[in-house]
Structures are given as C-alpha cells and as structure tokens.
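The pair is listed for reference:
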Amino acid sequence: MIRDVAIRAFRQEQEKDTHVRVLIRPKLRVKVGDAPAAPAGGPAFIREVNCKLNGNLVLGMEAGPHLNEEGFFEFVVRDAKAGAVIEVTWTDAAGDKGRGELTLT
C-alpha cells in the first residue's frame, strides 16, 4: 500500500448533515542504489475514489494528477446516524489500492 487514508466526520448539534473530510496521504518513495524512486511511466496518481455509507455508495469520483499530493476533499452526508460506517477506497494509476474506515459516534 502506497497511501494512508485519514477520515474525520463531524456534525453540529442541531444539524442533520454530517461533514466528512478525507485526506489521502502519499508515502515517500525512497531511491535505493540503482532502483528508480518512481515507477517507470511517471509518478502514480490517484485514479478513482469511492465513498460508502453502510455499504451504499454516496460518492464516486474519478481523479487525476491534480490529486496526487495530499489528496484532500470534503463531502456532506444527510441523516447519518451514530454507528454508521463510512468507508473510503481508492485506486491509483499504478494499480495500487487502499482503504480507510470510520465509524460515526
């Protein structure tokens, strides 16, 4: 796995909307000896991101090179209850995949 996913969610007391913030952080690639630091064909970038609430897709996004450094985005989910699970999955151009999960409190 090349990237970590950080997910934070918050809701104002009398609001029905839950604000979800997602940060996909790249891991550093270190060059060792004659090995290349990045894969041949250029640096990998996040190609696709999917966000689910309790298994139901709430956000699907195609991304590109603009989301390769500190990929941050925010979205709003209506009527999410405590105990609901938000899952974020991503795939990059090199075929690497990752996921993050948060249970709402």
In short: The mean pLDDT is 81. Residues 43 and 94 are 8 Å apart (CA to CA). Strands lie at 3-10, 17-26, 46-53, 56-62, 71-78, 85-92, 97-103.
